[in-house]
Amino acid sequence: MRILVTNDDGIDSPGIHALVGAMRRLGDVDVVAPDRQQSAVGHALTVASPLRATPFYRDGSMFGWAINGTPADCVKLGVSTLLEHRPDIVVSGINHGSNTSVNAIYSGTVSAATEGTLMGIPSMAVSLCDFDHSADMSLAADVAEAVARRLLQLQLPQGTLLNVNVPAIPRHEFRGIRLARQGHNSWDDGYEVRRDPQGRPYYWLTGKFVTISRLDDADDALVGEGFAAVTPLHYELTNFDEYQRLLSFGFEL
Amino acid sequence: MRILVTNDDGIDSPGIHALVGAMRRLGDVDVVAPDRQQSAVGHALTVASPLRATPFYRDGSMFGWAINGTPADCVKLGVSTLLEHRPDIVVSGINHGSNTSVNAIYSGTVSAATEGTLMGIPSMAVSLCDFDHSADMSLAADVAEAVARRLLQLQLPQGTLLNVNVPAIPRHEFRGIRLARQGHNSWDDGYEVRRDPQGRPYYWLTGKFVTISRLDDADDALVGEGFAAVTPLHYELTNFDEYQRLLSFGFEL
């Protein structure tokens, strides 16, 4: 089995290191990842400038390719151009921080897996629900290995990926892996205004994640109860209920 | 009516100028838009650096706020912080280029409308299916006005936006506005490898849009037949069919 590993925290992050260790137990690993932190980058592609691919070394041997682009760029460039062999699966992570609920929309980690499944490759994203960069990654790495082992058997349709969120808890409190749906929770956010030494304002995004609705089988609810949540996501964005309802409205011009 | 206008081509683009002209026929317009081209930026938010808001002048008066960020940043910063009054609707565009089918995933134009609807404001994205920056925007502007007039009456649920794609055709060939679903077409793309004067490779994204499946009511099919396509999109990303199917699979750890 050939596994393409990428992330959005950058090729030198602890999360990708832990993920590569776990994936090497499954097969041959190629790493193509951003050369720097790319969080909240969404499903961006670099079109207005060219990409560079630089060999990245760790412990004296080549660890992978560092790209001056986004996670989606890494998957597209890796699969189409850099790698000699097409991967059997794409695994993105381990992200430092939750990608449950609305976070999936903003997530570079999820976007890499989306790009993989759009290219016809079984793909998954893995996140540890803890922003601390010194957090223990070993449970999340074991969950990633377990889900990756199943991924090839699942035969997901093209365009559907698995979004895996792992709680940041001690292993003896971990309750197992559960299938989930995307939650409906979101951010209550705004900007903190500061002034530079010249008195001009600048704006920092701040916010806290708030519970809007509780669904027992939602990704964030399951993580809160000590489960790793596995959510099948796709990019069929049409709201078909609204489509049916709006057919009765006309649009005059 | 108060309309917040933004885009992803930048505050100095012809598309936003045409859109502001059309929206002023409906009410008071505020403009908060990126200070530079942001295409294929996806649903990115700027979290690792602060935002700046600079007054942008056109024809001797203030046209709007130019932001060193993404379209989603513009909506979030505008609504939460910059604007004195909360907008009644958010309109993003007019984008130079199609946002049908898979393009919606990569689109900064669509992401701005997504951010608006996530904030509870009726929102729409408008794109002219022509990448030529000298293209005639007047038909797309009239379509934007017609759809915006209906948007408040439609009472879309929070999280659902209208994605409007207008064909680049002469007005006498235009056949009207139709409700659509997101198409399933995509890009056949790759990278063109070039070498710099030092002989090191760099990679340009290239590709062409290809028809994968034909659906009569898909956005790109309708645009191809001379209609403006209005697609209700939402960010309920769970693939519920797969969720049901995968419940029978276990994940052992």
Task: Give structural attributes.
homodimer; 253 residues; alpha/beta; Stationary-phase Survival Protein Sure Homolog, Chain: A; two-stranded antiparallel sheet
Question: Could you characterize the architecture of this molecule?
Answer:
The structure is a homodimer of 253-residue chains. The radius of gyration of chain A is 19 Å and the shape is globular. The termini of chain A are far apart. The first copy, chain A, has one domain: Survival protein SurE-like phosphatase/nucleotidase (Stationary-phase Survival Protein Sure Homolog, Chain: A), CATH 3.40.1210. In chain A, strand 1 (2-6), helix 1 and strand 2 form a beta-alpha-beta unit. The first copy, chain A, contains seven helices and eleven strands. With 253 residues, the first copy, chain A, is α/β, with parallel strands linked by helices. In chain A, strands 3-4-2-1-5-6-7-11-8 form a nine-stranded mixed β-sheet, sandwiched between helices. At the A-B interface, helix 2, helix 3, helix 4, helix 5 and strand 8 of A face helix 2, helix 3, helix 4, helix 5 and strand 8 of B.
CATH architecture of chain A: 3-Layer(aba) Sandwich
CATH topology grouping of chain A? Stationary-phase Survival Protein Sure Homolog, Chain: A
The SS-based structural class of chain A is alpha/beta
Tally of discrete structural domains of chain A: 1
- CATH class category label of chain A: Alpha Beta
Shape of chain A: globular
Secondary-structure element order of chain A, N to C: EHEEEHEHHEHEEEEHEH
Rg over alpha carbons of chain A: 19 Å
What are the segments of chain A in which pLDDT stays under 50 over at least 5 consecutive residues? none
Round the mean pLDDT of chain A to the nearest integer and report it.
Answer: 93
Oligomer: homodimer
Main sheet properties of chain A: 9 strands, mixed
Give the CATH superfamily of chain A: Survival protein SurE-like phosphatase/nucleotidase
Strand content of chain A: 25-35%
Strand order of the largest sheet of chain A: 3-4-2-1-5-6-7-11-8
Biggest interface found: A-B, 77 and 77 residues
